[in-house]
Amino acid sequence: MRRFLLCIVTAIFLVLVGCELFLEQNPLGSIHHVSVGLNYYGTNVKRLNGTLNDADELQACLEDLGAETKREYHGYLMTQRGTETSYDYDEANENFPTKDNILNKLTFLQSVLGENDLTIFSYSGHGDYDGSLVLAPTETSLDGTGIILDIHEKVTDECSLGVEELLSKMESLPGKKLLILDSCYCGAFVEESNSSISLIEKNRCMQRAFETYFSSSSSTYDLFVLAATTSDNTSKEPVGDGHIHGYFSRALLEGLGWNQDTNTLKKYTHPAFTSGILSLDSLYAYIHTHQILATEGIYAPRYQHPTITGGALDLVIFRN
Which residues does residue 226 pair with via DSSP β-bridges, in sequence order? Predict the structure, then answer.
């Protein structure tokens, strides 16, 4: 009987609060988006064919959404675009996605961000087994191949941006922060929270939700993660050389209203918006429902499950 009453009270509470409490109550500041993509052509690791499309089009999409919703947008595109025959390292290019250049870009943002601003760091590329991002090398072999893997087939320190290092760097920035990651094992960036819980999953215990919402623990946090997969599974893209995206990124762009045939934003048609608001949870809910590749299964190579930092608080990204 107690459990039944608890569920009833919890259900009423969730209806009253609309299931999520928006973290963003102040006026929306500007967005600073660091969009990183690597295809690894010209290096000694496996090539990827959809990653540059992911990075390019997410930046264009968010820029157009910023203009439509009148939220100031600043984009920083950092891509590696090798060819079949050559690696494209340019030492003078501060936007070439080496580890040092990326960390320097985030350091630069510290001086321009305000407390109402949002920093989005998106990444489409390889992820190492521990979730680390695999970045562009500065070292090349005698034939000009970029060296990412050492003689033991391990990612070199120069090319590896670890989970804790990136999270720590993001946490140091003023304002709100959002990581959007499309790489293998990127669920390693999604940390457990003892003060909040996401209510998106359908089979969620109501008692746990009730205890979370009325917990005395602090629920003030400003770093969020939207990851393409769990910490123990890979992120996938279709096989082929055409205009492709990772399965996660395709659903992400679709939810934002991006037309992937014309590479343009569909004006005022954004499926992931709810009541004129694009929040992190509404975006995740759309991806989870519309991802072409299965989100569950018993054979890991045939599914991937997006993950998100849970919380009673939600992050507003755009508001019409």
Answer: 180, 308
Q: Is 315 helix (H, G, I), strand (E, B) or coil?
A: coil
Predicted confidence (pLDDT) per residue in 278-313, tens digit: 999 999 999 999 999 999 999 999 999 999 997 667
**135, two tokens:** 């970045």
Residues 82-114 have pLDDT tens digits of 998 899 999 999 999 999 999 999 999 999 999
Length of the chain: 320
Q: Domain locations in the chain?
A: 2-319
Q: What is the DSSP string of 5-60?
A: HHHHHHHHHHHHHTT-EES--SPP--EEEEEEEE--TTBSS---SSHHHHHHHHHH
Torsion of CA 243, 248, 249, 254, to 10 degrees: 90
Specify the fold of 2-319.
Rossmann fold (3.40.50)
Those residues with Cβ within 8 angstroms of residue 310's Cβ, 6 or more apart along the chain or in another chain: 193, 196, 197, 198
